Amino acid sequence: MNYILGILYLIFTTLGVACMKFGGNSLKISFSPNFTFEIGLFTFLGFLFYMVSFVLWQRLLISNNVSFVVPVLTGLAQIASCILAFTFFKEQVTVYNFIGIILIVCGITFLAIRK
C-alpha cells in the first residue's frame, strides 16, 4: 500500500468529519421561486476535504488489494474519529469505544501479517 496516500486519505477524511461537525446545520436549500442555496464555510470545507479523500480512496483501491486497504483504512478512520470526538468535541468515550479500538488494532495487526 502506498502509505503516503493512505495517511493523506486519513487526514482529509478526518478533517472532513471535523469541518462537518463544526459547520453544524449551516447547509440551507430552499426550493422557492428564487431557488436559494446557502452553505457555511466549515460545511463547504468539509465537502472539499471529502472530495479530496474520495479521489485518494479511489487511487488506493485501484493500486492495492481491496481486502487489505478497505478494512485497514476504515478501521484507522474510525480510531481517528473517536480520538477527534474526544479531543476536540469533548464527546464521551466509553469502555465499549476502547474495546472497539483494541479490536480494530488487533484486526489491522492480523491483516498486516504477511505469509
Which descriptors would you attach to this protein?
single chain, mainly alpha, about 75% helix, two-stranded antiparallel sheet, about 120 residues, flat, 2 strands
Average residue-wise pLDDT: 87
In angstroms, what separates the terminal alpha carbons? 16 Å
Strand content: 5-15%
Unreliable stretches covering 5 or more consecutive residues: none
**C-alpha geometry:** flat
Helix and strand sequence: HEEHHH
- What is the percent of helical residues? over 70%
Sheet with the most strands, sense and barrel status: 2 strands, antiparallel
Strand arrangement within the widest β-sheet reads 1-2
| Class by alpha and beta content | mainly alpha
Rg for CA atoms: 17 Å
Q: Helix tally?
A: 4
Extended strand count: 2
Provide a descriptive summary of the structure in words:
The structure is a single chain. Strands 1-2 form a two-stranded antiparallel ribbon. α1 packs antiparallel against α2 (41-63), α1 packs across α3 and α3 (66-87) packs antiparallel against α4 (95-112). It is mostly helical and 115 residues long. It contains four helices and two strands, in the order αββααα.
